[in-house]
Amino acid sequence: MDQPADPRARRLFGGSARALGDLAASPFRADRDRIVASPFFARLGGVTQVISPVGSGLLVHNRLTHSLKVAQVARAIAERLTADPAHRGLLDKLGGCDPDVVEAAALAHDLGHPPFGHLGERVLDRLARQRLGLADGFEGNAQSYRIVTSTEIRGAATTGLDLTAAVRAAMLKYPWTRLDHPDPHPRHLRPAPRGAAAPPDEPDSGSLKFGAYGTELEDLRQARAPFAGRIAEWQQTVEASVMDTADDIAYAIHDVEDFYRVGVLQQGTVAAELMAWQREAGHLRAVTDAALAGAARRPGSAIEALRRQLHRKDSWIAADDAFAAAVEHVREELVDGLLALPFDGSIEAEQYVARFSARWTTRLVDAITVTAAPDVRSGHVLLAPAQWHEVQVLKFVHHRFVLARPDLALHQRGQARLLDTLVDALWQWLLDPEEESRLPRRLPDLVELAEAELHPRTPDRIGRARGRAIVDFVAQLTDGQAVAMLDVLSGRSGALWTDAFVL
Q1: C-beta separation of 102 from 246 below 8 A
Q2: Residues 6 or more apart from 132 whose CB is under 8 A from it?
Q3: Does the residue 283 lie in any domain?
Q4: Half-sphere exposure (CA, 13 Å, Cβ side) for 183?
Q5: Segments forming the whole domain that contains residue 138
């Protein structure tokens, strides 16, 4: 394929790799086709969004269906913005907004998510840094970027998906590394961009969220080179900002939808929280932070804590009137609307859910705007204040009434222990000289790749290469594959064959 004139369409590997979609009129459509044809994309059907697809019973979103819906929302946003003459000049000045780019980036944004969702991400990060000696640790966004640039093995070549610069740049929600790029690092800004700050309990560990490991830094620089002088080094491209906003919208709506279907979200408990705050807002605002924390289980206290958190973190947009209006709108739509009729699996119930989701998606997409000078904690593409507050309240409902449940915590503690044991078992297997010829072929391939990426004088180069290979290997498993592999390695399974090695 000839190199297009648009520098954003440049490919890292010169277009040498061939894949489904190479002959498409748009190089960005070719990117979309390469992503969808990748086994890493198909794998997402077996990876947790919130509840593991293994044994969840009802149809809930997994990482694949979530990615498809993010792509749908992202494309709708991009098409709406590019069709509006009021936005075109600013979009061009900032580097462009192509619907094919944002759709491709949205499809690829979760490729690196490990088994068991965000829980798996936290566990692998801890193991990578504390047990395997990897300063970059693990981060799902950085792992997605690593997959499209280096770790997908295609025949004899290890060239990633050979995506255009624009799509790779649009994948970068957090366009920095954990520790040292760009310089000065965005975690030192006050306030820091969203995701750039270090965890409060590990102030020297670097950013909590980041878009690329140090091994992919040169690729990150090359992908973002066409945007130099248009946006700050730490800012998202417009297309990344669209993808990020679409991810927020899909997450806020579809996770609420899932747990209504499952029966976890109950009208009474959600109503008690929202309506107690509405009745007692004046009193709750006068309560000290310490007293509020001590009364965390009292209805209304948790959402008051959210209001205060928004003012602390996002004072650039947080407003009490908009917050109160958002609580009322969510109460009307969710408590008096969706949750008023328990989900019974009927066609009528499915249509009811679909109307709720479509109504909210349209409302939020229509509230998207573009700004030339966003706050440091925002992107160039953002929701209007009213809808921004509504998304925060919807996400609060999910966190308060799903993620904070003891039964989910019990399940996740078991998953964390499983990943811990699996990483240790693979490490021991990799170190066994008698087993070298019987290792899963992908594992030594990943060791070879990781070793080639490291400087020859890197301390304990082979040890770090093995550590990164194990992290890459585990991150490529589905939930079911991780469970099955540990069962076999621990002798608990009588099954002779497993598909955990064939991705």
Answers
A1: yes
A2: 423, 427, 464, 466, 467, 468, 470, 471
A3: yes
A4: 2
A5: 7-238
Domain assignment of residue 252, yes or no: no
Rounded Cα distance between 209 and 472, Å, is: 18
364 has a pLDDT exceeding 90: yes
Q: Are 471 and 128 in contact (CB under 8 A)?
A: yes
Other CB atoms within 10 A of residue 383 CB: 21
What is the rounded radius of gyration, in angstroms, for the C-alpha atoms of the chain?
Answer: 23
pTM, to two decimals: 0.92
Q: Which of 404, 433, 452 is the last residue of a domain?
A: 404
Taken as a whole, the chain contains a residue count of 503
Tally of domains in the chain? 3
- Note whether 393 and 439 are same-domain residues: no
Task: Please state whether the peptide bond connecting residue 114 to the residue before it is cis, i.e. omega within 30 degrees of 0.
Answer: no
Measured CA to CA, the distance from residue 445 to residue 472 in angstroms comes to: 11
pLDDT tens digits for range 420-474: 999 999 999 999 999 888 888 889 989 998 998 888 899 999 999 999 999 999 9
Task: Determine if the peptide bond prior to 203 is cis (ω within 30°).
Answer: no
Q: 27 and 134, same structural domain?
A: yes
Rounded to whole angstroms, the Cα distance separating 31 from 266 reads 42
| Cα four-point dihedral sign 438, 441, 445, 451 | negative
